[in-house]
Design a protein that fits this description.
This protein is α+β, with helices and mostly antiparallel strands and about 140 residues long. The chain has a single domain, classed as Thrombin, subunit H. It has helices at about 85-110, 120-130; strands at about 5-10, 15-20, 35-40, 50-55, 60-75, 75-80. The chain has a 6-stranded mixed β-sheet with strand order 1-3-6-5-4-2. The protein is globular, with a radius of gyration of 15 Å. The chain has 2 helices and 6 strands; from the N terminus they run E-E-E-E-E-E-H-H. Helix 1 packs across helix 2.
């Protein structure tokens, strides 16, 4: 598996909220090598625990991650976020897949003129792209 396959790049058209968490998360015994790359207007320290919310996808889901890297960019900061256990990793993968399904639905509407339901968009996206979506090695 290549490095690129172990990284989920959060689509920038969907807002992401990152907040420092004071309570450290529970860590798995086995290291998890899949990470999320996203942009932030705020710098975070490496090792800092963050609560991740994707309000345009789900208002009530919060995922805990650990900042693995924080690089200054022209638009702010690019964060690499790792996940402390398989449960948090599975939850962020599901939320990110929802972002990509919504992106697919918008793409189909604008390029093909098809206004498909969320369910139909999910079924089409899964058939076409789910096997390519990054997983933990």
């Amino acid at each position: 598996m290549t490095e690129e396959q172990r990284v989920i790049h959060h689509p920038e058209e969907f807002s992401i909220q990152l907040n420092t968490q004071k309570t450290p998360p529970l860590f798995s015994d086995k290291p998890l090598d899949l990470k999320l790359i996203c942009h932030s207007n705020t710098a975070f320290s490496t090792g800092e625990s963050v609560a991740i919310n994707l309000p345009t996808v789900s208002l009530d889901q919060e995922v805990t991650g650990i900042v693995d890297s924080c690089t200054t960019t022209q638009q702010g900061f690019e964060l690499g976020i790792k996940f402390p256990n398989p449960n948090e990793l599975m939850r962020i993968r599901m939320l990110e897949q929802l972002c990509f399904i919504k992106r697919y639905r918008d793409h189909v509407l604008h390029t093909e003129g098809r206004d498909i339901s969320d369910q139909d968009a999910a079924l089409e996206w899964i058939a076409k792209y789910a096997r390519l979506f990054p997983t933990a090695g």
